[in-house]
Amino acid sequence: MGQAAQAPSGTRDFLADELRRRKSAIAAVSEVFERYGFDPLETPAFERLEVVTGKYGEEASSLLFKILRRGVHEAGGQADLALRYDHTVPLARVIGTHGSKLPSPFKRYAIGPVWRADRPQEGRFREFVQCDVDTVGSHSPLADAEVVYAVADALEALGVDDFRFLVNSREALRGLLEVYGVGAESGEGVLAALDKLDKIGGDAVVAELAQRGVATDTAEGIVADIAADSPDRIRAKLEANPRGKQGLADIDQLLKLAGGLGGRVVFAPRMVRGLDYYTGAIWEVEAAGYPGAVAAGGRYDRLVAALGGPDVPAVGGSVGIERILAMRETTAEDGQGLDVALTALGGDESGMLRLAHDLRRCGLRVGTYLGSSTKLAKQLKWAHEQQARLAVIRGADEQAAGEVTVRDMASGEQHRVPDEGAAAYVERLLGR
Amino acid sequence: MGQAAQAPSGTRDFLADELRRRKSAIAAVSEVFERYGFDPLETPAFERLEVVTGKYGEEASSLLFKILRRGVHEAGGQADLALRYDHTVPLARVIGTHGSKLPSPFKRYAIGPVWRADRPQEGRFREFVQCDVDTVGSHSPLADAEVVYAVADALEALGVDDFRFLVNSREALRGLLEVYGVGAESGEGVLAALDKLDKIGGDAVVAELAQRGVATDTAEGIVADIAADSPDRIRAKLEANPRGKQGLADIDQLLKLAGGLGGRVVFAPRMVRGLDYYTGAIWEVEAAGYPGAVAAGGRYDRLVAALGGPDVPAVGGSVGIERILAMRETTAEDGQGLDVALTALGGDESGMLRLAHDLRRCGLRVGTYLGSSTKLAKQLKWAHEQQARLAVIRGADEQAAGEVTVRDMASGEQHRVPDEGAAAYVERLLGR
Q1: Percentage of residues in chain B with pLDDT exceeding 70?
Q2: In this structure, are B316 and B353 located in the same domain?
Q3: Is B2 on the interface with A (CB under 8 A)?
Q4: How far is the alpha carbon of B353 from chain A, nearest alpha carbon, in Å?
Q5: What residue intervals traverse the membrane (chains A, B) (predicted)?
Q6: Is residue B334 part of a domain?
Q7: What pLDDT is recorded for position B1?
Q8: CA distance B4 to B344
Q9: Is B299 known to sit in a ligand binding site?
Q10: Confidence of residue A335 (pLDDT cuts 50, 70, 90)
């Protein structure tokens, strides 16, 4: 049927095995967040265009899926809605919409698809699940630590055990720039350049800083300090800088409060998050065997207001659930087999359906042969393909006697039991 | 913040309590379908526009949410994608895309949002969940009966117990028209008119049939036969009509195979489904206390091909989960309370977070006070609002002694226990 038969570019059909794996991962993470007292939130798949316009910067705006106005307005070619690009702008909008109805602080998690018209490539999709946890309305450093603990537990629930939180602070980084005499006006551009250190290397970053008007020796000094990734070196540099000291205090408080995670939370001066809305401690999680970060977050006290919500402090994190699931795709996992396969050999089948009904009510997964063959061998082959543990056979003989044959598919052992006792017999065999 | 602060027209933000109720309903229905051996399927939120174009008829097409082309193409004002309007067209597309990888018959369920730009009104939304279960690739009447059983169990899982399946057949209805000499060419229009009987009354239906070229006495005869809702009367009329007799046989087979549901499955000549793609037995479920149908379905052997998939038989049903959830909205339901509320009274809080971490790992829902007050009374008020069963208090006294106070929030009874035994003590108190 050609291209039209495919799912749209950058999207996926999730068939049974993979979908069950995804659902179970999402359930595991949800359960962790629930234990931390976070409440679920689900917003519509799309928002009014004016809610998202100007919120993501120019590049991201071009990645919005915009929805045409409908009815007589369709011909105008104008959009009035856009698919959800992340869970953060909807969160800010919800706080504006439902503010008085929400608890304060508002602790919520959101796990669901977002849509971005990125160029599709290996491992990057246009429809993918984001998994966010945020506390809005608390200045308490306990809120920061709680998010870190929750993300750590979520990663473990996803089977990621060998990980490290790399902690830094925007204030510490800005303080370092002040020490070098780099003013706030060029600060964001400079931080964005420093964020590329691991990608493009120190020399290229120095060159980019020079382009932004930073003297070469200054740029080299900053890059050397960051690249050294030495907390002691940074602490020494920031000793006399109030802003830097505040940043260090934020980092130290988070390290102390997250002490229960042991050496898995460390100060990493080299870690610079690209986004410019963070205000306090920030972190990324690196995990053995995973490229890039498997989670990231931090405090962003001015973001909700900037996104059109009220002026409230906030701290949050995001778990890279797609990235983690992608690493698992190669793992062979068993499909969902049947507990009981019922044959259909003609005659009155209503009794078989009643038996099926009884067994399903007891929680068993039961399938009925729905093909066109009336041959037992073929139907048993089907039962085998369904990975059925038991098959129930009711041919002419059994029907005449008011019985069924129950067959253990692994051993081939089988017994005839009366119709009325069949459900109880099967349940007993399967340990129900 | 004006209209921009609201969710888009016809959509809803689901806050914690309602969302938990929805998730638990969806989980209950999914579990039922799994027991029947149906596999989950999730398709993208949108399809290529050409996949959906022409599939829904003219009226429905105007209800599609169409997505603008992106990047340099955006200015052209053309759409290339459309949000999912139902789960049936994506199912047909998936069978085309993944045919060889799918089991045959392909038994799948799909529970997820669909989007229709209907005029929003009380109880009708532009984003709502559809809950479909279908078997594609089987001619067996067992497949029809299995769907009926599965839908019945799903309704019970949703708390709907007092229901009846009203069964009819398109072939029986077409046979009746033949008996009256109404040809196939006007058949669909006539059936669509008969479908309005309960809404507009017999006289109006007769008038509409007359407009469609049916003689008045013929129209009156047909309407009288349908309105009587008497299986015997219809059986007598169809005695000599082969098409009608085939329809009756389909109905009788389904009634017999679904016998385990007792009197909850009945032949209802008055039940005419509006959609014209059904080919075999069709049914609707009426339930005490619910307006309209709470579920509907039937056999539609030509639909998958008509929707662009291969030519395979199919049978399915849809549960009106939104309608059922809406009737429950008025039910007061408890929010999700905390098992343990931890106070934050200053000093070193890292021990409290470790305790929280230990308790959460044991599956308890634990919240930490994140507000700005340092007063115990205020923090206990918060614990009470969180419906916490226990509060753990660690003030200056306790910290000096290396202990915590554990307070039963209902009785007010409290005891001090050493830090290191606190987790075990709390778990014991809560029966873990």
Answers
A1: 96
A2: no
A3: no
A4: 7
A5: none
A6: no
A7: 42
A8: 38
A9: no
A10: low
